[in-house]
Design brief:
The longest helix is centred in the middle third of the chain and has 20 residues, at about 35-55. The protein is mainly alpha-helical. It has one domain (about 5-80). It is globular. It contains five helices and no strands.
Length: about 80
């Protein structure tokens, strides 16, 4: 069984379709039972959509990775 921490560690890969079929099944099984992770996925998708569609600014890839890593670290710290 995948924990919230395990799920969050794979969140970016999950959302980018970068996980194996077997791992996707495990992640989606976790999502089907975990309201907290459902909210995180939903909020992340909405945030990505808003930022992507706004077109108001571009960030360098290195900045995006740094920001994403910091956000994920804070989420993991709160869940664990």
């Amino acid at each position: 069984m995948i924990s919230c921490g395990d799920f969050l560690a794979e969140l970016a890969n999950y959302m980018d379709d970068g996980v194996t079929a077997q791992l996707r099944v495990q992640l989606e099984n976790h999502l089907s039972h975990c309201v907290t992770c459902q909210v995180i996925v939903d909020s992340t998708r909405k945030t990505v959509r808003i930022v992507t569609e706004s077109g108001s600014f571009d960030l360098p890839e290195a900045a995006l990775k740094s920001i994403s890593a910091e956000i994920m670290a804070k989420i993991r710290a709160e869940i664990v």
